[in-house]
Amino acid sequence: MVQLLAPLQLLWFGLAVPLVLLYVLKRRRIEREVGSTLLWEQALRDLRAERPWKRLIPHLSLLLQLLVLAVGAIALARPVGVGGATAGARTAVVIDTSSSMAAFEGGVTRLDLALGVARSLARALPPGGDLMLIEAAAAPAVVAAPSGDATGLEAVLGRLRVRGGRADLEAAIDLAAERLRGAPAGSRIVVLTDSAMDGEIALDGRSAPVEVQRVGTDVPNDAIVAVDVRSRATDEHPDRADIFVRIHRFAGDPADVFVTASVGDETLASRRITVAANGAESVVLTADLPPGPDGRAPLVRVVLGRPDGVPDAFPLDDVAVVPSPAAGRLPVFLIGAPIPAVERVFRTDPEVELFATTLAALGAGTDGSDGLEGLDGLDGLLVFLGDTPPSPPSGDSLVVAPTGDAVFDLALGEERASPQIITWDENDPLLRFVELSDVHIGALRPIESPAARTLVSTDHGPAIVAISRAVGETTLVAFDPMASDWPRDPSFVVFFRNVIERARTRRAAGGIAPGAVGEALRVPVSAGQALEVTTPSGRTLSVTARGELAVVAVPAEAGVFEVRAGDQTLQPLLALRNHLDPEESDLRARARFVVGDREAVGATAAVERAESWPWFAGALILLLLFEMLWATRKGAVT
Amino acid sequence: MSSEARRDPGPGVAEDSGAGLLRPEFIRRLARLRVLARRRFAGTAGGARRSTRRGSSAEFADHRPYYPGDDTRRIDWNAYARLEELVLRLYVAEEDLCLYLFVDSSRSMGVGTPSKLHVAKRIAAALGYVALTGSERVSVVPFGAGIRRPLPPVRGKGKVGALLRHLDALEPDGATDLDQAVGEFLARRPRPGVVAVISDLLDPGGYQRPLERLGSARHEPAVFHVLDGAEVNPEAGGDLVLVDSESGSRVDVSLDARAIRAYRGRLTAFLEGAESWAKRRGVSYVRLFGEAAFEEALLEYLRGA
Questions:
Q1: Sheet with A461-469, edge to edge strand ranges
Q2: Is residue B254 less than 8 Å (CB to CB) from chain A?
Q3: Is residue A84 part of a domain?
């Protein structure tokens, strides 16, 4: 059975309508009587003899033209038949989805080219044959079980994306060979790869012959292969930092590139450098990187550009995002009336970036009517001294000496004088190395809530509790330390340091770990919580978490991914993805596919089977059109 | 060339040429001319033209032996004195010439402004006039696919009117078949003479064979090739269907530069072929394009007589 790979091309046959019309419609001619047409007939015979083509009998001409048109249209439709393929044969198509397959050539990616070949294979299956798809990523996987359903296979192919990172092509071929064990004769493994990887892969000794089809050509590429931001703070410039960038050129000729560092929309520094052929060049850019008003450390974005402004073939490695050194320091916001002992503990910690403010300044009222816009803009540990907002903020928070009737949604008991500490949970991270036996509390407003985890109990009720939520943890110290002797006890500093460390750890864990391009985001959330991920290119992905940790597959894009969980007004989590792999940035074919001790034919030397004959068919149709127009033009002699 | 002085074209000539075939000033120019004949023909009556026969003119022709019964008055006694043999003196006979005006009156002659037939009539009228005033015998033989109603041989200036009227009555009709017409003409065994074929020669059957047949029958053909100006210089005119006036066949043609160039090539070959053929066969050939130049061309031909 013959299939058409491009059935829409049959629309060319629609030209038969005007063709027939040209034959049916007669040209309007004026009659003129002459004495004799004897000489005219002889003259016209001369003209016909001068023509480069022989005049056909009109109807035969029409028939031939229609045939040419039909053949051309069918040819353009790329008919494929069973050909030499064995009936029932199985084809395993291994598709390289490493990050280098995202390189653009001719406006499409190498993966697009590979998918095109795979689609052709899926549509040209022999009778009874089937095809399976194996994705060659870091870990090979069968993405489509053997099937003869071209539509289903194409749907799977349509979902394939560049994964980022490297591809274990040999493992993928092994997997394919394993799956083809016992397959009918004529079965084969087709590997679609750009061969842009180091190493040698043996193709022999498999259960089925392996055919490697290379997609793409050797194209030059400039890449950011390393980036870092290190503090170079001085007394005069406490936020000064050096931005280190290493550029590698994978081409046989040198080139000039621009390295530009920016934060948000502000350009920090830019420099033009010349990178030698197949060489690397380092650049150090110096800039002041103060934390933002929300206490967040700025993210430095480094972009590689060419003087002509045209992006190179592989844009993934032309962008890198790196946090500034301030990201390692925990912002602590003291909100409310200062408590000197507490403030002293935070101020003496060098890894704390301390801010002091009030609820009123942040715009969060205590009447419950106002929102949390001001609070949610803060990324760090929030320490409420006295008054608290109506609802807990996102992230970690600490409440000391609460006032009012409730803390968030927890009711405060009546003040009790001189409570005695009875027990404390030594195993809780917050009370690690904390010894409270010698601590005496002046007054206590106990917190009674089953949702709270009691850390310190007194004879009048819980004195310190913790409430864990998906978006953060709140620790409540239900008494005023200044009305106790606790600040004089070493456990006071240890406790607050534990809170700081706990917040720092949770902040690190609650944020999303940096990773390579294409690496999935691992987001700590509540089960069933909806996540919305915005990619660097602005696309939005929606995911619903199934467990405590949502694993979000993201497209291979370099930059910052923003993750919002639940309430869209909350501060988004950020995830950084960079492509800093020199092996994948080198887009030139380097892999050697060998059979025995010789390089396999059709491996690195092979190129994609470009179907050039449709161009010839198109040219045939254009020639036919030209002939029609020429033969029927005004003034043509019939 | 010989000429005969004539001061007056003759009474009633102009008014008899109802279609204005002969203008008075043209007639005056024709007066001193006579029809060109390259060889001598035997006439039927005495005339002003030397005959192939021996006659009684003053021009000595030859001697021949005397035979009993011969006119003794023609014995050349001086020769008898020298040769002692009786011989007769023979003199050239002067007889009239037969001029056959073969006028092509097929439909193809009807095209043009004025029509080629009109030009042919004027040529025939001029030739006929010259011949009649020169005491020749003139016959009009219109032809198409065959001979149509001919004018029997007439002689004398008084027949000019009849000649012109006969010519004036000719209308274009039918196809051209010169060979058929010549066959019919020769079948009537006409007395040999000058046959002036006035035609466009656009005969699918060709003109060479019938003219050769005339020569073989001791006639002297003379060709007057008439073409219309539009036939010689066609103008570009877009997409046309050319309809053959005789056969009705149709030819689709786009009159662009290429087509006209090809036509002119064929026309030139046709004209040059006719002229060279006539030259090789010793046939007088006169080409006449339209009415404007025909008088001069005709006079030039007649002056060659």
A1: A352-357, A330-336, A381-385, A397-400, A472-477, A461-469, A453-458, A421-424
A2: yes
A3: no
**What CATH number is given to the structural domain containing A208?**
3.40.50.410
Same domain, A545 and A443: no
- Chain segment A142-198, per-residue pLDDT in tens: 999 999 888 899 999 998 988 888 889 999 999 999 998 888 877 889 999 998 888
**Rounded percentage of chain A residues whose pLDDT exceeds 90:** 25
Residues in A touching B265 (Cβ below 8 Å) = 43, 46
Specify which residues A334 forms β-bridges with.
A356, A383
Domain boundaries for CATH 3.40.50.410 within chain B: 13-40+97-232+286-303
Q: Report residue B33 CA to chain centroid gap.
A: 14
B270 touches chain A (CB under 8 A): yes
The candidate with the shortest Cα–Cα distance to A110, out of A92, A119, A98, is A98
In terms of residue numbers, what domain contains A259? 221-323
Cis peptide before A490 (omega within 30 of 0): no
How do A141-147 and A443-444 pair as beta strands? unpaired
> How many domains does the structure of chain A reveal?
5
pLDDT digits (tens, 9 = 90+) for B55-99: 555 566 677 888 888 888 888 898 888 888 888 887 665 566 788
In chain A, what's the furthest Cα-to-Cα distance? 139
Chain B interface disruption, residue of A25, A27, A31, A40, most B CBs within 10 A: A40
Interchain CB contact of B116 with A (< 8 Å): yes
Residue A527, both tokens: 């089960």
For tokens 């006028």, name the residue: B103
Collapse the DSSP code of A245 into the 3-class scheme (helix H, G, I; strand E, B; otherwise coil) and give the result. Answer: strand
Q: How far apart are CA A160 and CA B212, in angstroms?
A: 93
Q: Which two tokens stand for residue A448?
A: 């009674």
Neighbours of A293 (CB within 10 A): 9
What secondary structure letter does DSSP report for A441?
Answer: B
CB A186 within 8 A of CB A89: yes
ipTM: 0.76
Q: Does domain B13-40+97-232+286-303 have CATH number 3.40.50.410?
A: yes
Answer yes or no: are the C-beta atoms of A202 and A169 closer than 8 Å. Answer: no
The answer to whether residue A83 sits within a structural domain is no
Q: Do A369 and A455 lie in a common domain?
A: yes
Does residue A127 sit in the same domain as residue A154? yes
